[in-house]
TrEMBL record:
The keyword Lipoprotein does not apply. It is an enzyme of class 2 (transferase). It catalyses: 6-carboxyhexanoyl-[ACP] + L-alanine + H(+) = (8S)-8-amino-7-oxononanoate + holo-[ACP] + CO2. This is 8-amino-7-oxononanoate synthase. Its EC number is 2.3.1.47. Its cofactor is pyridoxal 5'-phosphate. Keywords: Aminotransferase, Biotin biosynthesis, Pyridoxal phosphate, Transferase. Belongs to the class-II pyridoxal-phosphate-dependent aminotransferase family. BioF subfamily.
Length: 380
């Protein structure tokens, strides 16, 4: 086995990856003893660096939840009561049945693959959906077609061409897209569902739960479309500052996933302490509206300031991407920023399409005015 040719090709394309060696200190990271403001964290509400919040959790957590392993899958002996407590809380918040998974990747790959088992099912996906959706489709040997990002005219055309061919058509999109930083046109997607009666909606809210809308329940809740979304995926490793994920769906589909979602069936469940923290965050989520509003304001300010400097900037809220073009150009900008105290690694092909390499900022509420000015000063 010799991977040399593959590794060499990646190096030639400026696409070779390596793991950074970092030490974390609040909103900063240290790389080779060089202090850098961290703009590569998805801790949008700053909960991971909020010592008082973490202390509040630790003083309230139940002793039976202070376990660092479940030691089993949930279908065997790993179904501690904190899982059901957390699912019950999420079900109450969204008025849907909740089912926990170990991560957003585990949830997407397993739920999509499971849905592929249902006869006469066809998927229509936004071209920019997460890799875990693509992997689930491939594992499930799905019949699917993609549409240009957020292009509702193209989506409607695909639906029109296939609605009579299949019993079920599942449209997959995201609440906030992780690379473009923009919102799904959910109102228009829901309108199409009313037109095409066999259409279902699968919405990945990984980058919107916690940070979008009053109460932080995500885009679907903010627009009052939760009832219209058949499969609503939340992940906990970003704004929730925890680990894990949750699928919100009907009672029948929850039973289906329990029986057919392989990553749930064949994985050791997350430690109870992690589930307890996720539950704790959701019970406090509505108290962070000021932080959400602050992130939205500072995002608009940074975007406008960079555009005035001549940069092309994507993003509508807490994720901003400075477009560079080729991988080498994105690497050069990331290096320039690092020299000036900003940690924002380049995002390269194939994570994004060819000639759209970029530097991405994940903004969060722990950033001060001084931090913001240091970001802007790092650009020529």
């Amino acid at each position: 086995m010799n991977p040399d040719s593959i590794l060499f090709a990646l190096q030639e394309q400026n696409n070779f990856r390596s793991l950074p060696s970092l030490q974390h200190s609040g909103v900063f990271v240290y790389e080779n003893q060089h202090k850098l403001l961290n703009l590569a964290s998805n801790d949008y509400l700053g909960l991971n660096v909020n010592s008082a919040f973490k202390e509040q959790f630790l003083t309230s957590v139940r002793s039976q939840d202070m376990l660092f392993s479940s030691s089993s899958s949930r279908l065997l002996s790993g179904n501690f009561d904190i899982y059901e407590i957390c699912e019950s809380t999420l079900s109450s918040l969204y008025n849907r049945q909740a089912l926990l998974f170990n991560s957003g990747y585990h949830a997407n790959i397993a739920c999509i693959q499971a849905l592929c088992k249902i006869p006469s099912t066809f998927f229509v996906i936004d071209r920019f959906v997460h890799a875990s959706v693509i992997d689930g489709l491939r594992l499930g040997k799905a019949r699917f077609k993609s549409f240009t990002h957020n292009n509702m005219q193209e989506l409607e055309q695909i639906l029109d061409e296939n609605t009579k061919k299949f019993e079920n058509i599942i449209v997959v999109s995201e609440g906030v897209f992780s690379m473009e930083g923009d919102f799904a046109p959910l109102q228009e997607i829901v309108a199409l569902k009313k037109k095409f009666k066999n259409m279902r909606i699968y919405l990945d809210e990984a980058h919107s739960v916690g940070i979008v809308g009053k109460g932080g329940l995500g885009l679907a809740a903010h627009l009052q479309f939760v009832e219209s979304v058949d499969f609503l995926l939340l992940t906990f490793g970003k704004a929730i500052a925890s680990v894990g994920a949750c699928m919100l769906c009907s009672t029948k589909m929850k039973d289906f996933f329990i029986n057919c979602a392989r990553s749930l069936i064949f994985s050791t469940a997350l430690p109870p302490i992690n589930i307890a923290f996720s539950h704790f965050v959701f019970t406090k989520l509505d108290s962070f509206d000021k932080e959400r509003e602050y992130v939205s304001r500072l995002s608009a300010y940074i975007k406008q300031s960079l555009q005035k400097k001549g940069y092309e900037v994507l993003g509508e809220n807490h994720i901003l991407s400075i477009l560079c073009g080729e991988n080498a150009q994105a690497l050069a900008l990331a290096s320039q920023l690092k020299e000036r105290g900003i940690f924002a690694p380049a995002i390269k092909e194939p994570s994004v399409p060819k000639r759209t390499a970029r530097v991405r900022f994940s903004l969060h509420s722990a950033l001060s005015e001084e931090h913001i000015e240091s970001i802007l000063k790092a650009f020529v």
